[in-house]
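Re: your question from the hallway

Yes, I did run it. Sequences:
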Amino acid sequence: MTRARGLIGWILPAALVLGWEALSRLGVIPANILPAPTAVAAALWRVAVSGELARNMGVSAWRAGIGFLIGGAIGFAFGLANGLSRFSEEFTDTTLQMVRNVPHLALIPLVILWFGIGEQAKLFLVALGVFFPIYINTLHGIRSVDPQLVEMGRTYGMNGFELFGQVILPGALPSIFVGLRFGLGIMWLTLIVAETISASSGIGYMAMQAREFMMTDVVVLSILIYALLGKLADTVARALERRTLAWNPAFEGV
Amino acid sequence: MFTDALAMIETAARFVPPDDLRRDPPVPFEVLGDHLAPQSRGARLSVSKLAKRFGETPVLDGIDLNIAPGSFVAIVGKSGCGKSTLLRLILGLETPTSGRIDLPAGAAARFVFQEPRLLPWAKVVDNVSVGLGRTGSRAARRAEAARALADVGLDGRGDAWPSVLSGGQKQRVALARALVSRPRLLALDEPLGALDALTRISMQGLVERVWRDQRFTALLVTHDVSEAIALADRVILVDGGRIALDIDVDLPRPRRRGTPAFAALEKRVLDALFGGFEGGDAI
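Structure:
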């Protein structure tokens, strides 16, 4: 039953691919506009054999992961600090909210001037993009912890650390996971844009290279790889969520 | 916590007692009966000239109270009369504006809230372990918690998540959490208020049984006069921030509602509560 449910989500994509293949074969969709799925598969084989794919995917995954870790850790730290300390919030929140309202991709020209097209530029952008959803949702999660439970914890003699570990953090966790999943989405988005504009390696670079040589199949392949990587990250986050939030009836059987 | 206080201020503000009542001297507490077991583990509690105001609004105004070790005292009153505040002051959840509260050091007082307040992310047994704090190993705490669960009739439910329990079961877990550390004073703030009538009655029986087994001093805040008379040795009526009535309940246990003596006591408290007429201006 659960297995069948898991598969149901794949019926529509499979039908789309089959329809696309059929239309390509019939010549309705010209190959230079959108190559057939089989042509994309052939391109996949080609770049996989040449080692180009593994190298570029590795570079992209590394950038995504490191950028996410840096931005997520800082966002989480600020979320905790501002959720737990009124002073810290008053001191930093106004600044953070102002910075948040600048679209981080608008900083690309400045970032290129600062860092050139090296790794730092990409990491900086990814970290900046990931920072805010994690920050906001951690803060919100801590703020929305049931004050009655906090009072119970104090009445039952919990010290600050126990209160944090047993009441505040678990209470904030559902919201932190929302931030995590938003952050993962922004991570890929930022990376795609950054790699497409200025890079000498990575999936985005591979797509731009292919465009230069009119290799539509590789361009489509790159887009599909991004979609799959995004889906993979989301699946990992959901699995983590299911494990940690087993107590929550809202997550039963999700 | 703050919304609680606000709600209390709001309701308290609506019940400004008439002047003549406020000038009345406090009803002196009675010397307690000697029917209690002398070797009770319960804590002795004494309160003198206790006052609490929230901003300009007086909630409690000169409470004097002596509670014998191991006795079961019920505090009744209209909503907003300050009975919950009195309990929270005694347990140190609020600080008094003036007056003093004497509880022996290490009395290990525990509080049962109106809501179960279980940690939804902790298994039932771990929720009960919260009552043991940092004492001993985790395994020892869990074993102790499992025993406390058996005491409240939830043997074997330790591995469940709180979300699968009924309201009455959750409140029993909260009771086990309060009792697991063997407190000498147990404060109960309308713990049965949110339960349905049938569950209430069986929970009252449970509270009485654990109290008889463990002989802690029990302080029960309730708005249900018949519950107070069914459980308590002594019923205290708080009105307008003062003690308006303080009577001993000398009925044999287990008590049966509907006996003439029970009904007479109930009427006496209700009359004091509503100033003579049933329902009266309280609604």
